[in-house]
Amino acid sequence: MLLFTITNKRNGAKLYPIGSTCVQKFGRTDLNRQVTLYSDLFRLRAAILNNTQITLTSNHFSRAMIEYLNDEGAFTPDRWDSDGGYAFMLDMFNKHKKDEFTRPQLSKITVLLNRKVIPFVLADKSLG
User: Fold this and answer.
1) Which of 19, 33, 48, 128 has the fewest CB atoms within 10 Å, counting from its CB?
2) Three-class SS of residue 19?
3) pLDDT of 17-72, one tens digit each?
4) Residue 2: per-residue pLDDT
5) What does the domain layout of the chain look like in residue ranges?
6) Under a CB-based contact definition with an 8 Å cutoff, are residues 20 and 9 in contact?
7) Exposed/middle/buried for 44, CB within 10 Å: 0-12, 13-18, 19+?
8) Which residues of 66-89 are buried (b: 16+ CB within 10 A; e: fewer)?
9) φ, ψ at 45 (rounded to 5°)
10) Where are the beta strands (DSSP E) in the chain?
11) What is the pTM for the complete model shown?
């Protein structure tokens, strides 16, 4: 279970802790997505810290997580990609037959995971 803080936008009052199970009972799709995203991010971070091999599969990622990583700055522009590899990672994640990745595609995925995604997740302040 994750714990959230809810802030009243009118008076600034904060309510903590609110468990993820309670947040989901609010019936708000946006909050449910956020709970799912942070749960997935915590699982990814735990896998990284446990030295699990991280692969670009639904075992570790979701489209929402890849989008979050991009929005939060994990995919910084570099000399190869102006979007830092975001579109490539999303395209590769969306492929149904991951066993058909080419060797260059696998190499690029590995580089992006090891140089951008994993360091970003480990340093992400929102994960504590």
Assistant:
1) 128
2) strand
3) 777 677 677 777 777 788 889 999 999 999 999 999 999 999 999 999 999 999 99
4) 64
5) 3-127
6) no
7) buried
8) bebbbeeebbeeeeebeebbbebb
9) -60, -40
10) 3-7, 14-19
11) 0.81
